[in-house]
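Below is the record:
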Amino acid sequence: MKHLTACVVFLGILCLQLPAQAGFWGFERKFVSRKNAAYTEIVQYIYNSLDNSGRSPKEEIPIEFKEVFKAVLEPTAVKIPFRTVKVKGSGRKTEESGVIYFAKGQIVVKHDTVSPKADTSDFVTIGDKLYAWKPGEKKGQILRRFTGDTIELVDYLIDPAMIMRYTYFDYKRSPQSFTASNDQNSTTILGKNSPYSFLGIRFSSAPLWLGTNIIGSLNCKTIVCQPIAADAERTHFEIDRPIPISKIPDELLQLPKNIKFTKSEGTVDQYLSYL
């Protein structure tokens, strides 16, 4: 997989590794001035930008972008369980888990279990305010808002830097660069001779959902990193397919007790890391 590093503005800001053959489609420049647009206008703008009508085959937007946005944005509200799992052989150990709830202008991110080493945060929108805090700590922030910030946050949480979407994009166009295996409900693709700790993804079809980001630990004691052994421990970042619900439960749209929140000039962007 050949990549070039590119910073593009998307859903406010995104900084990602862009496949060299993919290009980008121009709407990132327009989006800069749209941070204060109405929420529904932003959603409509996303869908319009993903429309392939009149595009040449080289300019077409890959289906993986459309399917992910449809699964998250089209229902009235969604529930998205997630977890981080250490996998070695047939063994699995869940280190972190929780649930994302998302609706129009609203988001709740609630961790049930957290790894002691994890740098992670919970979030909740109440009225027009967005609160953030680290599980187990006594202080939190009231973040500065911009319209569309909840879309930006949920998009990052389900697929940071769109790594899984671009990997699927690469796989559909260069399947010979991957090793693919199938089970009853999903397909796992691993890049051949990947020099990166990012190894591949697991996805399900009909409809498409990119559900697992597979990471390994590289042996980089020398300038050249050594390939990751087939039986080495891997980390699976698992995101379940969004479950449509009627609304976010009222009991979740509340602040945790014993945490002091202070107003901040920061936005959700400070919690997103793309490189």
Summary: Residues 39-49 form the longest helix (11 residues). The CA atoms of residues 77 and 245 lie 5 Å apart.
